[in-house]
Amino acid sequence: MRFQNDTTGGSRSDREIFATTKAWTLSAGTGLKTVYVEFDTNNTTGTAEISSNDTIIYVLPSMCSDISQAECDSLVALYNNTNGANWTNDTNWLQT
Description:
2 domains, three-stranded antiparallel sheet
């Protein structure tokens, strides 16, 4: 399989063995992102290339919240400095 961010001359990743997950860097900036993937099959009848894509809308966390960045940073610091991962109720912490 291999990946690319666009079909207009963008570079593709090197081919790699199929995996169910893939870390991938999106193109720069916010907004609509489309990632293209090609899967190769190699069977007794030859090879085939199967293509697919997924569209992602990327927004910065500060664009999703009415909480200022300073308040958000303070809450994250509170969570991190008071063993927040082990709180009895940590529902929705670190969410914007």
